[in-house]
Write a structure and sequence with these properties.
The chain has helices at residues 4-18, 23-44, 51-60, 69-90, 97-108, 136-152, 157-170, 177-191, 204-217, 221-250. It is mainly α. It is globular, with a radius of gyration of 19 Å.
Length: 257
């Protein structure tokens, strides 16, 4: 019986063979993920835009009546950061501490330009969590060490999951830590040849539980299992759509439901 890691590797290998022969479908998937990643990551943090409303804001550039302007700006800011992440993933160079700050600068630049890209000078708390966060004086050294680790780490799924957990635990920014951490995880995944991971609001409880089990008790299993499951779901989606695309190319008259 295959382990989770073996399942992920096997599905990634399948994806690697399909990606070059279905480029248009792969590009369409990337556009779908632009909306999905923006909607879900913001929704976890309390943004009120629905998936469809997020698509309207990003694709049409118009506001949705009755929704706060900040929610619209958060959607556009996340898409700005996601564009940067995709560009960063294509570069043949390590990810640096400055890149993490730039991701945050783009995430927060439209809603809180004074804090965007800057480490917090204030004590931070995570609502509903007993986790004690590093003091403002500790953030600089911790982020320096994190940046060195990140620049040396080989891109892989394990590195991606570790980068997310390490950054969200340092919690260096006044706001936008979760969104920045998830984007950082996904740039490492993209560099590794994996698709991005989507964590929806319906998975928020399991997601937070996994993080807290690791942060508070040192139990990495719930977090690792959760993240591996989300990555496997993304792999399954990519494989299903690319295979369907190839079948339609071979059978152009085949009816689809």
């Amino acid at each position: 019986m295959q382990t989770i890691d073996e399942q992920l590797w096997a599905k990634k290998a399948d994806l690697d063979t399909l990606r070059p022969i279905a480029p248009q479908s792969y590009e369409a998937l990337a556009k779908w993920y632009d909306v999905e990643l923006t909607y879900t990551s913001n929704a976890i943090e309390g943004n009120s835009l629905t998936r469809a409303e997020t698509a309207i804001v990003l694709e049409k550039g118009i506001t949705v009546s009755g929704k706060p302007l900040r929610d619209h700006m958060e959607a556009v800011g996340h898409k700005d950061a996601l564009d940067y992440v995709r560009d960063l993933a294509r570069r043949d160079e390590p990810i640096r501490e400055l890149d993490v700050r730039q991701i945050h600068r783009l995430v927060m630049g439209r809603t809180d330009p004074e804090e965007a890209g800057n480490y917090s000078q204030h004590a931070r708390l995570i609502a509903g969590s007993p986790l004690t966060l590093p003091s403002p004086a500790e953030i600089g050294p911790l982020m320096g060490d994190f940046g060195q680790w990140l620049s040396r780490a080989k891109p892989s799924a394990e590195t991606a999951f570790a980068a997310h957990e390490k950054l969200v635990t340092i919690h260096p920014f006044s706001d936008g830590n979760g969104r920045t951490s998830r984007l950082l995880m996904n740039v490492v995944l993209l560099k590794s040849g994996y698709p991005p991971v989507v964590i929806g609001p319906e998975q928020r409880v399991e997601y937070i539980y996994g993080l807290e089990a690791l942060q508070l008790r040192g139990d990495a299993q719930p977090y690792r299992t959760f993240m591996a499951g989300r990555l496997e779901a993304s792999l399954d989606r990519h494989l299903s759509i690319l295979r369907q695309s190839l079948n339609q190319d071979v059978n152009p008259n085949r009816r689809t439901v």
